[in-house]
Amino acid sequence: ASWLRSGLLLLSATLQLTSAEVLGKGPLGIHPINDRYIAVADSSIDAVLIVDGSAGGAVVGHYVLHDRKNDPTDADSHIGSGVRMSSWVDPISIATCDTCKHIFLTSPGKFYKLALDRPLLEMANAKDFSGFTSKSTISEYWPSNWSENYYDDGYLRMVWVAPDGSSGYVDHSKAGVFSFDPLDPSEGSSKAHHVIHVGDAGIDEQEINGLHHTHSLKNLILTSSKYVHFVKLQDSYGDNPLDNKDVTAYRHPLDYH
Questions:
Q1: Quick count: other Cβ atoms within 10 Å of Cβ 118?
Q2: Average pLDDT, whole number, for the chain?
Q3: DSSP secondary structure code for residue 212 in this structure
Q4: 0.90 exceeded by the pTM?
């Protein structure tokens, strides 16, 4: 569908944004659920919206990411103004998988998990997102294996989850990449680690702005202001080298022709 292709092109463009652009206000994160529905993380209203592409972009589900009781009395007047309110999540990216019972969100300083009563794809197949609005709950998520030195420091950027839920990654523009288990996002998860450090395998830049899996799930692509880095996620045995802290990558300059 043309709306889905447009959405994917928007996501591709988002991966090349500068840090200043990534941290702006508006619908910064998108997740195509299927060929009809898309989830949008909109920081201008601090909510996740479910959009129906077959109904002219109608919003068929929504979840406000903060308790509106804590909003200042003039909160509505600040929508679209760029003013940040302390109780807001301010999401900049969103990800989930076909069988995940959580949506994952990044803000500049914190990582969140939004618990669902059933996966978004199941809701989409049933054409019913009523439970998304009424039954979802949000909480901060910072696994115990992630260093507290990077918590709420303002440098978190994108989250990406493999469609099958086999892996999930969050990039930190100064520190590298953290892993987590999208199917079991527990605090003590053994799959949650700091898997790529700046300096590993030629990834020596200080502004990693985006990441995503390739279609084959064999590589993780990192983008920065000057390079695209391709990180191996599957070896000849079918194992993920990052699970053993083995980082193999090559890079292409963005101005290469």
A1: 14
A2: 85
A3: E
A4: no
Counting other chains too, the contacts that 32-35 makes at CB distance below 8 Å and 24 or more residues apart are 32/4, 32/7, 32/8, 33/120, 33/121, 33/123, 33/124, 34/121, 34/124, 34/125, 35/1, 35/4
Rounded to whole angstroms, the Cα distance separating 117 from 133 reads: 10
Indicate if the pLDDT at residue 98 is higher than 60: yes
CA distance 128 to 43: 24
For residue 6, count CB atoms less than 10 angstroms from its CB and return exposed for 0-12, middle for 13-18, buried for 19 or more.
exposed
Max intra-chain CA distance, the chain: 59
Per-position b or e across 55-92, b if 16+ CB within 10 A of its CB: eeeeebbbbbbbeeeebeeebeeeeeeeeeeeebbbbb
CA distance 182 to 168: 6
In this predicted structure, what is the pLDDT of residue 251?
A: 87
Could you tell me how many residues make up the chain? 257
- Cα–Cα distances in angstroms (integers) from residue 68 to residues 65, 101, 138, in the given order: 9, 24, 14
Identity of the amino acid at 113? K
Task: Kindly tell me the sign of the dihedral angle through the C-alpha atoms of 83, 42, 89, 226.
Answer: negative
Span 65-77, pLDDT tens digits: 988 776 666 555 5
Position 10 scores a pLDDT of 42
For residue 158, what are its two tokens? 């994108």
